[in-house]
Write a structure and sequence with these properties.
- By secondary structure, the chain is mainly alpha-helical.
- 49% of the residues lie in helices and 7% in strands.
- It contains nine helices and four strands.
- The strands form two sheets. Strands 1-4 form a two-stranded antiparallel sheet. The chain has a two-stranded antiparallel ribbon with strand order 2-3.
- Helix 2 crosses helix 9 and helix 5 crosses helix 9.
- The radius of gyration is 22 Å and the shape is globular.
- The two termini are 32 Å apart.
- The N terminus and C terminus are likely disordered.
């Protein structure tokens, strides 16, 4: 029982000094800051409302016990050190926790507010490639690990938002990333096909490839929220969900690193 209730990360852990932890935290923060400084100011027309605006998504729908049970079962069993017990154990005793878990999820959906525990992550540095020099900080990427139940609620929100986006044809037609039945392979197939068709017609073509450094880390959340409101037409409780998530993450960013350092745990860097 004790083994089941204790955190069980898959990687080997290594106790290290808080100094090394802060060194990583400062490096990742400074990297994001330096990238954002070089980004030009966003023009105001990014916030303009498109001509054909879809119906607004104002609120989430409550889910049933069977729907939540299915999501819990299908969610990866990876465990975060902030979890009170292993995810596998939670799944085994889920029926005893079903009503409470359902109430927490539906309360979040009704109010658009997530509990602070669901927005706190443990961040660990991970080598981009196994053959890279482990002493060079730029060879690492910060990987955030959220509590298991946080990922369950994230999936609940995703399912409802995805239905709205697909039902109103809001998603980019040629998007391949983070899209069901699409991947980098579908992007490559379509790109190669375009190039071959252009070649057959003796047309001139230019291929532009853009690689963004720390793309996800440097996203302007204010722009994201404006886009969700003006272009995706989220409002009321649904929009507040993203707004409160953004503000809470801003306020607790350093707390996330502090948790990691105070636990005095990091994953082996070699």
């Amino acid at each position: 029982m004790e083994a089941q209730l204790s955190p069980a990360p898959s990687d080997t852990v290594n106790h290290t000094s808080a100094l090394k932890c802060k060194e990583f935290a400062n490096f990742f923060q400074n990297k994001v800051t330096s990238v954002r400084v070089g980004i030009a100011d966003t023009p105001n027309n990014l916030y303009d409302t498109p001509e054909n605006s879809p119906p607004k998504l104002r609120s989430f729908s409550n889910i049933t016990e069977s729907e939540l049970r299915k999501i819990v079962t299908q969610t990866s069993s990876s465990t975060c050190v902030l979890d009170p017990g292993s995810s596998k154990f939670l799944k085994k005793v889920y029926e005893s926790l079903a009503s409470t878990t359902l109430k927490v999820n539906n309360t979040s959906l009704d109010t658009g507010v997530f509990t602070t525990a669901f927005k706190t992550a443990v961040v660990k540095p991970q080598l981009k490639e196994s053959n890279l020099d482990s002493t060079v900080l730029s060879n690492y990427s910060p990987i955030s690990n959220l509590p298991f139940l946080s990922k369950v609620l994230e999936k609940v929100v995703f399912n409802q938002l995805n239905i709205f986006l697909n039902g109103n044809a809001i998603l980019e037609k040629f998007q391949s990333g983070f899209k069901s039945n699409h991947s980098i392979e579908t992007t490559l197939v379509k790109t190669v096909n375009h190039l071959r068709l252009a070649t057959d017609l003796n047309q001139v073509f230019i291929l532009i490839l853009l690689d963004l450094s720390a793309a996800f880390d440097t996203i302007d959340h204010n722009i994201v929220i404006q886009r969700l409101e003006k272009w995706v037409d989220l409002s009321d409780t649904v929009l507040n969900c993203f707004f409160f998530l953004h503000t809470s993450l801003e306020e607790t960013f350093m707390s996330v690193w502090r948790i990691m350092c105070l636990l005095n745990i990091t994953y082996l860097l070699v």
